[in-house]
Asparaginase (candidate division WOR-3 bacterium), 301 residues
Amino acid sequence: MDNRTVAIICHGGAGTITEKEDYARGLSEAIEEGYRLLRQGAPALEAVLRAVVMLEDNPVFNAGTGSSLTIDEVAEMDAGIMTQHGRFGGVICIRNVKNPVLVAEKVMTETDHLILAGDGAIRFARSMGFEDYNPVTEKAKRRLMELRQNGSKFFPRLNQRLGITEQKSGTVGAVAIDRNGNIVAATSSGGIAGRMTGRVGDSGIPGAGVFASPAGGVSCTGHGEEILRMLLARDIGERMKTLPAQTAVTLALSEAKRKKVLCGAIAIDARGGIGYGYTSPDMAYGYKAADRLFLFTDSRK
Ligand code: ASP
């Protein structure tokens, strides 16, 4: 077996992060667990799923339990997973499940489709044995109430009172490379608080919020409408055909910055090189490679 270096990188969303220590703790637990699996010889798919499930189950993050709510107080979640071989599974606007990323994986392995949305996604989840689960937390309800009072800077038509400069983050993502050189990327999000019900974000769309190819894997976070317009994950993936992950991310994000798009991305290239960057005030991220853990709280921008 080719025993090349394994690596995993995770993010906990781009935006303004107030609970930095909680984010860092949640990320380090997920990264350590994913890395432990990779070192034991587990496939990248297993490591990524495990890490994202841990982040979804942690109410600090905006994915799974603790997901942001729509303007009608509903938790509609998006998730996507992609392998370097181009296999993809996604769920869009799925409700009442604990781990959207696990349903996305079942879409990939058990259906002839790439993405299931809404009621159909929920029905499929039930048929796969995923139980009814309410991911709505009191904190997410309070956050929506605050937004109702102050407005969301991303959705001016929903609320004409602009001027909010703070956008909470918390979407999660992971990219890993295993010792056979297989690369998998996944993203899971509760979406942006205060959006219209039925709104589709980038997280469950291949090429937008998540992407993988033989050149590398990518997970994005930030303003979903703009990430969709830019097909940000695909852009970074294309760049990794000729550039290391860090250069690919930096170049794509400088383009995003020029367009004033608030976003962030993590990536791993085919050589196991790590890349990350963001145009937002903060991004929660961390990685482990060569047995060394690095967290965003270790060095401030
Ligand atoms: N990209 C997500 C969305 O627009 C939100 C986020 O990453 O914070 O749904």
Remarks:
- The first strand starts at residue 7 and ends at 15.
- The chain has one domain: 3-298.
- The first helix runs from residue 20 to 39.
- The pocket of aspartic acid is lined by residues 13, 169, 171, 189, 191-192, 201-203, 209, 221-222, 224, 227 (CB under 6 Å).
